[in-house]
Every structure is written in structure tokens, then in C-alpha cells.
Amino acid sequence: MSLRRLYWSALAGQWRGGVVLLVCSLLEGVPAFFSGRLVELSVDRGFSVGDPAAGLGWLALFGLAAVLGAFGARMVWHQLGKVVEPLRDALVTAVVRGVLHDESPPRNQPDSSGVARITQHVEVVRDATAGLLVQARGMLVTTVSALAGLVTVAGALVIPVAVPVVVSLVAFVCLLPSLARRQRALALADEHTAATAGASLAGMRDIVACGAEPIAALAMYDAVDEQANAAIRVARSSALRALVISLGGFVPLLLALALAPGLVARGELTAGAALGALVYLATTMQPALRGLAATAGTVVLRLLVALRRLAETAELPDVYDGTAIPRGTDIQVHGLTFGWGAASEPVVRGLDLSLRPGEHLAVVGPSGIGKSTLAGLLTGMLTPQEGRVLLGGVPVRDVPAALRHELVALIPQEAYVFAGTVRDNVGLFASSASDDTLSSALDAVGAGALLQRLGGLDAEIGHGGEGISAGEAQMLALARVYASSAEFVILDEATSHLDPVSEARAERAFAARGGVLLVIAHRLSSALRADRVLVMDGRETALGRHADLMTRSARYAELMQAWTTPVTGESATGAGPEGHAGDRPAPGTGGRRPAGSRGSVDGAPTGNSPTSSAPPSLGTAAATAAGAPSGDGAAAAGGPRGVTNSVADMPAGDGPATGSPSHNGATGSTPRSPSVSRAARVS
Predict the structure, then answer these.
(1) What's the pLDDT at 659?
(2) Which among 281, 471, 568, 637 counts the fewest CB atoms within 10 Å?
(3) What is the pLDDT of residues 498-519, one digit of tens each?
């Protein structure tokens, strides 16, 4: 459905309110139609014949008509919200859907242009529609009523009055195209300014670090100047439009004043009819005509421009919804190839993969190599350029969307937590689940303590996850999918804010849950827990078990070596110039480092230490060597010589969870500052 069809269908859906508005319009037009006629009667049949009581009676009827018109105008405001607000909701839904289905969305930053469309263009449509229903409708009714009344009172003045009105309206219509173009340019300039400001604010730290403040400021100045120039051009067109309409409103009045005395002298008009005609022109038609033109020149133009802009970005092509029903939930990938653009280097090339229910696959590789792109291809959100992805023996994109959403779940790194109760968040995909089921899901992923701290399933979570840490938000997202019926789960660095032990517990919970589990690894310890590992490194994609890949995949061996080997020298703790908490001796040590801390690596998870920092994500500088797991003298997991009892593989509950609690007492989230970390030893 096009956006304009959506607009009109949303208005048509409120037909009851439209009928009430029509009745109110008839009441509102009563004084405009009878004003001149009642003034004529009060003069000709009252005051001019020496009967002031009759004249006052006709004027009293005029007052009653004005009261009826005011009542009709009041009823318009009562019905306005019932017509306009559903329209606004429908447009916001269409814009959000368009943003979510954008083929080239902003990556790693907010969509400021999309926000501008919701907060500016949709509100323009809403306000313009309200203005048309109140102002333009009322002015149109008043103008038509005044002209009809003028015909009944002074028909001889109709032609002299109508000619300048028609000429001014024709000139006004000729000006509308240029005004529409300038209004559209202003709307695009508004979006460009919002996008430029959003990009600068999102990358402020990088801008300052690179000393690029003058460049960013210049880009902002250019955007603001462009917006200001567009606004000036719109103002000039509006001024010319106002001049044309003013002439169309004053010239008829001047002509009536010039012609009326002669018509009265020849007996073609009575004095009351002449006065009534002036009442129609001066007090009713002229203000209504000016207001109608002003509304059409601003409100209607803004409405059309905003609708056109929204249609360009919010209209979606008809999406084919498949009808194929999968036979099981096994995943088959054949010759999968995908690149971001026809001429770009493919990020996934000729991939073959087979996953059966109960299998656990870890995907590792440098940042930006295409791991999240692979997740999009497997879930059917992206269309491969070559190859096929089969779910249960049928192409994943041919599975009906509703069924695919039940079978496949993707948890991204950015955990989405919504304002509402804990029950609302965890039960989002399992609306019929009992409280015991939701609580069990929270316990399974290690969020039982979080549930107790928040106060149970009825605890309220504020907007934007207010009151919980990033790690706790990820736990809620994990529990949400754990409680769902999804049988193919993808964790796209969904545990990046959890400490290694909490991450291990969550991954083990999903592996034991059944179905197919694919983990895009944030730490290489995820690869040690998986049945198989997929190493993505451009053309050097490799698939196999950990032990096999250590011998036949140079990239995988390098990643493991960098992850498990501590850095020697003064930077062994990973401290920067400002110094981490891990550089300082622990309290109570007398300035000495704790025993056994020789060669310690900042952030290495330990078996006994109560606090340690979570390691950085894959793809960061290998020289930090942060996040290497260690135990009490055990060999580091994934070391080049084997794997023995790494703490990252410890079952939950075998020792205290690493990761200091957040400011609100959260457990399982990334700590703010490390305390003392033991040596990560490599056998």
C-alpha cells in the first residue's frame, strides 16, 4: 500500500468522525450565510421604516445564528483528535517499517534521518491535517456561504466581485509549483542537518581524538547555511503568495464600495441590500478568502511535501511471503556468496555448511569480516547473491514469515529492553508461558540473581533499560529467546557485556536447550565449547573442530595464540598511559602485587579471584592479550599445545563469577574497573 493510500484509508476509517465534522460545518456556516441577509432585513424592515424593535429582532436572530456557528466550531475541536491521532499512529508505523527495511541503513550509528522523518515530517502531516479539518474546512464553508448569501442579497454585485477573486486564485495556483519545490528543498535540508548533527555527535570522541573539529564544524555550518537559504526561498515565495491573495481580497471590496451608491440611486439595490453586501464582503468573505489561501499555501503545501518525502522512504515493495513448510530445523548452506554491492568484494564466498538439531557451531574471525552478515543470510533477512540457505529442506526465505519468526531467533549485541515489566520483556515471544517457565528461563541463563534484585517478574524496567546495566540487559534478551519456541538460535556477540563465566553458563544453557545453536564469538572461549568452529577470514574460511583447526588453519592458530599469550614487560597488565586499576596493588598488600601475579594479564578470568575485567572482543589488538582464561595452575584454554581445565569452560557455580558488580549491584555484567588479575599461563 502506498503512503498516500494509507493516508486516505486512515482518514476514511474515521468516517463517523467525518460525518460529525460535516454536521458541525453546516452549523458553523449558518452565520456566514445569514449575516448579510439578516442585516438587510434589519435595515429595510426595521430601522429604515421607523420600527427599531423589528430591526433589533432581526439582529437578535443574527446573534442566535452566531451562537449556532460557535457551537459548531466547538464540536469540531471535540472530534479532531478522534480523526487525526489514528492517522498519526498509522504514519509512524509506516515510517518505522520503512526504516527497518532500509536496504542501506546507517551502520554502527543512529538513523538521524529516520528520526527526523518521525519527529518532523509525521508531525507536519498530523498538524497539516488538523489545520485542514479546522481552518481550511471552516474557511471554505464560510466563503461558499458568503457567496451564496451575496447572490440572494445583491446579485448585481456578484460578477464585479467574482472576477478579481478568480484572477487572484488563478495566480495563486500558478505560484504553487515553485512554492512546493522550495518547500520540498527545505524538508530535505532539515533532514540533512539532522543527519549531519547526529553523525557528528555519535562520533564526537573520534573527531576530538583525530583533531577533526574544524572539518566537523565546517560540515555543520554548510548544512545550517543550506537549511537557512532554503527557508529564505520559501519565505520569499510565501510573501508573493500573500500579496496576490491580499489583492484578491481587497479589490472586490473596493469595487463594491464604488458600484453600490450608483445601484442604490437607480433603485437596483436597497440601502439594506448594499449594507448586507458589504457585510458579506468585509466581515465574512474577505477574511475567509485570505485565510483559505494562506492555509492552502502553507498547510496544504507542507502536507503534500511531507507526504511525498515519507512516501519516498516509507513505501515498501510488495513482499512475497513464502508458503513452503520446513521439514525439521536442520540448516543446509550450499555455495553461499554475498557482498555489499555488485562490485564489492564478497564477505561470504562459496560457503557450504550443514547444521543439525543438537549441534553447536561457533563463528570466529576478525571484526568486520562478515560474521553478522552471515547471521543475516542464515535467518533470511538478507538475500544471497549466489547459493542457497535451506531450513528444513526448503529455502529459508520461502518459509512464511510468521513461521520463520517462531523457528529462528537472532540475539544481536545490542540488547533490546523495553519499558515495562520483567514479565513483558522475557515473555515477549512466549505470551502464553507461565511465570514458572519465565523464571526458569531467567535462571537457566544466569539471571536468577537479577530477578531477585529487581523484585520479581512484576518489577518495572524504565525507558531505555533505566535501572539495569548493559550486561543485565543482555541477560534479559537471552532469557527472552530461551523462553521462546525458537529451534535455531543465533547469538551475535550477545554476551559481550557478560564476564567469561556468565557467558559460558548462558551458552551451555542454550546448547542443552536443544535445536541448532550458532554463536558468533565475542571471546575465543566460545570456540572451545562448540562442537565445530567456522573461521571467517575472507578467502581463508575454514570449518572443523578446535583441535583440527589448530593444525590446519593458520588464522585460527594465530587468534588462539594472541588470545592466550600474555604480554611481557611493563604493558603486561594492559594498562594505558593513564593506568588501569589492574596496575595498582590490591588494598592490603603493602604496595606489593599478590603472589603468583607475575606476568599477569589485565582482564584474564581466574578461578579464585573475586573480580576481573571482561576481555575485549575479537578483532581488537592482539597485543593486549586480554581475556585469556586461566585456572589454578591449569593450562590456558585454546593454547597452541592443548586445552586443560580452562575457567572459561567451568560450569556455572563451580566458583565465584568473575566480573565486579555494576553500580546497581548487577551480576554477570562487565565490570567497570578490574582489581587484581592472576597470571594467564600457557602450557
Answers:
(1) 36
(2) 568
(3) 999 999 999 999 999 989 999 9
Q: Which has the closest alpha carbon to 292: 177, 167, 118, 134? A: 134
Task: Find out whether 276 and 263 touch, Cβ atoms under 8 Å.
Answer: no
What are the Cα distances from residue 402, in Å, to 295, 408, 477? 45, 10, 20
C-alpha cell at 330: 536442520
Which residues are paired to 20 by β-bridges?
A: none
Predicted local confidence at residue 590, as pLDDT: 38
The answer on pLDDT for 634 being more than 70 is no
CA dist 281 and 560 (Å) reads 88
Provide the H-helix boundaries in 483-621. Answer: 500-513, 525-529, 546-552, 554-564
As a whole number of angstroms, the distance between CA 255 and CA 277 comes to 12
The CA distance from 78 to 134, in Å, is 11
* DSSP for residue 49: G
Residue 245 has pLDDT above 60, yes or no: yes
Is it the case that residue 409 has pLDDT exceeding 90? yes
How many Cβ atoms are within 10 Å of 470's Cβ, its own excluded? Answer: 18
The pTM of the full predicted model, rounded to 2 decimals, is 0.52
Does the pLDDT of residue 422 top 90, yes or no? yes
pLDDT of residue 458: 92
What end-to-end distance do the CA atoms of the chain give, in Å?
64
User: Residue holding cell 453600490?
Assistant: 260
Residue 651, amino acid: P
pLDDT of residue 360: 95
The Cβ of residue 249 has, within 10 Å, a number of other Cβ atoms equal to 22
Of the listed ranges 117-121, 256-260, 538-542, 632-636, the least confidently predicted one is: 632-636
| Residue 338 one-letter amino acid | F
**Helical segments of 13-111, H only:** 15-28, 30-44, 52-100
CB 395 within 8 A of CB 370: no
Tell me the average pLDDT of the chain.
75
> Averaged over 142-165, what is the pLDDT?
77
User: Residue 386: what are its φ and ψ, rounded to 5°?
Assistant: -145, 155
Query: With contact defined as beta carbons under 8 Å apart, do 256 and 281 qualify?
Result: yes
Judge contact between 506 and 445, C-beta under 8 A. Answer: yes
Q: Which of 62-66, 269-273, 418-422, 611-615 has the lowest mean pLDDT?
A: 611-615
Contacts 24+ apart (CB under 8 A), 113-116: 113/191, 113/194, 113/195, 113/198, 114/313, 115/194, 115/198, 116/190, 116/191, 116/194, 116/195
Burial 160-171 (b: 16+ CB within 10 A, else e): ebeebbeebbeb
Which amino acid is residue 639, in one-letter code? Answer: G
The rounded distance, in Å, linking the Cα atoms of 311 and 305 is: 10
DSSP assignment of 216-235: HHHHHHHHHHHHHHHHHHHH
Q: All 3 cell numbers of residue 474?
A: 543482555
Residue (of 236, 238, 232, 246) closest to 291 by Cα position: 246
Cα 212 from Cα 440, distance rounded (Å): 51
DSSP run (H or E) holding 569: none
Q: Where are the alpha helices (DSSP H) in 514-671?
A: 525-529, 546-552, 554-564
Residue holding cell 533499560?
Answer: 465
